Amino acid sequence: MMTLRTLLIAFLVGGSPIVISQTPTSPLTLKSQVVEASCGTCHFGMKADICTLAIRLPEGKSYWVSGFSIDQFGDAHAADGFCQTTRKAKVSGTLVGDKFMATAFVLIPKNP
After folding, report:
1. Could you give phi then psi for residue 24, rounded to 5 degrees?
2. What is the dihedral of CA 25, 34, 39, 94, to 10 degrees?
3. Considering only CA atoms, which of 74, 70, 66, 75 is closest in space to residue 41?
4. pLDDT digits (tens, 9 = 90+) for 51-77
5. pLDDT range class, residue 110, cuts 50, 70, 90
């Protein structure tokens, strides 16, 4: 799948650059993908004013989660909450910009 690329061509005539953009391809869909899940602000270095659920793909890119909230999985600030730890989750949904539009989000049980 091609990523969005922007090509900037600057012409000296008039000193104005011309921007030519390739249109984005269809969004990437994940189906039963195992990812890391945590608070994006506390653990993934994402910028936000509040603690919010996020996922990190195996290649290291993080996305905010839409469709599920951080507190649906317990108190985020409890000892085992997303602001204190990172968990594995099996997710399905679509990546759109910097958001993961989740249709399924299941935490994988920790090993005893």
Report:
1. -65, 150
2. 30
3. 70
4. 999 999 999 999 999 999 999 999 999
5. confident
